[in-house]
Amino acid sequence: MLIEDGLAARVVGWQSSGGAWHDFVQGLEAAGYSPALLALGIVAMCLMAVAATAMLASSIIGRSRARPLLSAVAWFAAALLVVLASWILLLSVVSDPVLRQALLNCVVISAAGTMICVPLATGRRSIFRSWRRDLAVAIGIASGGLAILACLRIWNAADPLRDLFATFAVSLPFTVLVSAAYLRHRRPVAKALSFGSRPGSFRRKLAAIWPWIAVAIVTFAFVFTQLDLTIGRPTRGGLLLISLLLALAGPHLDVAIERRGWQAARSQGGELTGALWRTFRIVVASSIFAVLAILWLLPILDVAGIPRGAVLLKAAEILMLVLVIAFCWNWVAIVAARIGPHAPGDQHVTTAVIGTRLTTVGPLLVGLTKAALLTLGSLTVLVMLGINVWPLITGLSIFGLAIGLGSQTLVKDVVAGLFFLVDDAFRHGEYIETSGAKGTVERISLRSVSLRHPRGPVATIPFGQIGKILNFSREWVVEKMMFRVALDTDVEAVRKLFKKIGQDIAEDPELNADLIEPFKSQGIAALEEGTLVIRGKYKARAGRQFQIRKAILAKVRTTLAENDIKLVPKPLHVPQMGG
Question: Do residues 190 and 253 make contact, with C-beta atoms less than 8 angstroms apart?
């Protein structure tokens, strides 16, 4: 088999690597190079590139605490400046083009490795510092190994020698170190990746197994590299390392950007900023996928004879459309979360929250807006791909008409709900009574409304079956109270006492904000079987009258008792037995 033959050939080559190394050294000496001086020069160029990149980036960032995006731009700019300066220096100092190319490759790889390794290893103190340090060591070893491999390739080292070095000095250490870093620190990594997710959610489950996925990715890359070397296919080590770093860094970048967007959205007036940060998450994810696609899929397009330019242009157009729709989607979602009522069971909400008209109609408008964005975006993408969408639109229209004719009750509920919302008959958090149920409005959908009874049960009523609505939570309510006293009670004295009670309640700082008109007597309401029924009333904010009622009842009881006025019970009607 091809794999068995290739593996046998590699083993034979490894066994003869000593002779290959001897031939390589003799070839360098024959070309006028000193191996010791070359090794010293390579190490010196790598160290100079590392030091220059780190110092230049630090001077660009400054001592102030830089934002992550600014820090990344500073490191990239520093690496680019170091590469350009080294190129100019090597052109003017080194006359040998082979040596110049080898040293320049060392500078490029060392600067790129420094751009990644140093921020990882020197970050802020946290539980992730040791994990970042382990990753930095692994990436540093891989970068140094790639630099040496570039030099071996330029000086035409034998394939078995390069194979041996690439396998046991670059690929294997990198795989082992990265796997150990993720497995040793899998709990803090999973905790960081599950930011903002609920227990039991898909994201939290994915974060819990991500360290194992990372180990699987680097292991698969190692196996893929070894298979390429075994069957004699050339392996692009730098390409593979970039792909691995992008795949491993993607989830961590996503969480960092989401944390920043979450903080922006929580701030006052941060809807636009939060939407931009959420859209930036999609930009980063799309960029990672685009780089991986360019690195690995474009060669396949060349083999298939598909022009690259047309594919890249079409992909760029679709990506721009997706970003615009994603920004609108995120902005609508953030606005909806800000104006929407509190979800049932929110631990920060202890009483029912009455929403405004916007919070009542808002969720329905948000749902319709998102559906419109999704539909419009899907149809536009199909048009960009050259697909005729008119038959699809016509089919959906006929299908929708058939559904509408076959579900008249559903249409009736939807239309009735729209008119109820337009008339502003009720809102979230209001206490209403319909022909079939009563309770607090807890949820409003396009077809029905859910009412939470004070005892707990939830009734879901289609809009078409609501009928008449009594809303007990609008603006104000007049509460009338009956008191039964003895027939010989001084009514004028009771009136004055009720007035005094109303003044005391109006001066109570806990109750006066909800009291619109103070408690007062309305005189004799009825004479019933030797007792006087005296009525009192007050006017309060709707839904806030119950605490005032409790306070009035308590004060009436104690005040009348202090003035020797007794409240009498309602006479009982005892049926008489027939003779």
Answer: no
Q: 458: Cβ–Cβ under 8 A, 6 or more apart, which residues? A: 439, 442, 450, 451, 452
Average pLDDT over residues 346-357: 44
- 278 by Cβ neighbours in 10 Å (0-12 / 13-18 / 19+) ranks as buried
With CA atoms as reference, report the closest residue to 417 among 448, 439, 450: 448
Identity of the amino acid at 559 = T
The model scores a pTM over 0.70: no
Helix (H), strand (E), coil (C) string for 200-248: CCHHHHHHHHHHHHHHHHHHHHHHHHHHHHHHCCCCCHHHHHHHHHHHH
Strand partners, 39: none
Can you tell me whether residue 437 is helix, strand or coil?
coil
Angle at 291 between CA 290 and CA 293, to 5 degrees: 65
Whether residue 81 is predicted with pLDDT greater than 80 in this model: the reply is yes
pLDDT tens digits, 16-30:
888 888 888 888 888
Q: What is the DSSP string of 180-193?
A: HHHHHTHHHHHHHH
Q: Which two tokens stand for residue 560?
A: 């009348």
